[in-house]
Protein: Phosphonate ABC transporter, permease protein PhnE
Organism: Devosia litorisediminis
Amino acid sequence: MTAKVSHWRKPPLIKTAALRYGIYAVALTYFVLTLATLPIDWERTAKGMEAAGRIFSGAFPPSFERSGLLFSGFMESLKIAILATAGGLITSVPLAFMAARNISPRPIYYLGRGIIILARSFHPVIVAIIFVKAVGFGPLAGALTLVVYSIGFVAKLLAERIEEIDFGQVEAMRAVGAPFLSTMVYAILPQIMPRLVGLGIYQLDSNLRASAVIGIVGAGGIGATLANAFGRYDYDFALAITMVIVGAILISEAFSGVIRKRMS
C-alpha cells in the first residue's frame, strides 16, 4: 500500500473561482475585440514583407568599405554617452536628495519628485525631437536628451536608496549640531555611494544603446549614420553599422558586468 503524496499548490490571487474566470473571460474578450477593430491593412502588410525581403537580400554581405565614416559615427555616440552619463549623474544626486521623503521637507520632496516624473514621462525619441527643434541637429541635442533620460532613471532609484539608509548616522550627526550639508556629505553620501557607482555604470551602457536610437531623428552619433545609410538604400553598409552597434553593446555589457561583480 502506497502512502498518498500531497503537493503544495500556490493559492490563486483571486480566491472566488467564478470571479477569477469571469475576469479571464473579460480580458480575453477585450483582447479579441481590440485585435478585430484595429485598422490593419493585411494586403499592405504582405507587400511590406516583400519589401523587407528585398532589404535583407540587399544587406548581405555587409560592407565595411566606409569604415572611417562608421568609426567617426561610433566615436561620436560614445562621446555623447559619456558626457550625458556624467551630466546625468551630477544632476541626479541633488535631485535624489530632494526627492527622498525621509530627509526633505514636504514641499521640496514634491518638487524633486515632480522633476523626476517629468523626466520619466517621455520616451527619449520624443525628447530628442524637442531638443533637435530647440538647438538644431547634432550631438548637443543627443547629449541633452540623454541627460534627461539619465535623470529619470538614476535620480529615482537613488532617492529610493536614500529612503532605505540607516538613519541612525543622520540622527547622530544632527545630535552633535552638524549642519545640513555636512550631514548629507558624511552621513548619507557614503551609504549611497556604491549604488551611485553601480547606477552610473549601468546608465553609461544604456546611454550608448539609446544614442544609436535618438541619432535617427537627427541627434547625432551612429544613429544618424545609420539613418543616412537607409536613406541612400545602402543596406549592406547599414548592416555593417548594425553589427558594430551590437558588438559594442556586447563589449559594454561584459565590461559593466565585470565591474558590478567586483563591486558586489
Remarks:
- The two ends are 53 Å apart (CA to CA).
- Residues 100 and 163 are 6 Å apart (CA to CA).
- DSSP finds ten helices and no strands in the chain.
- The mean pLDDT is 84.
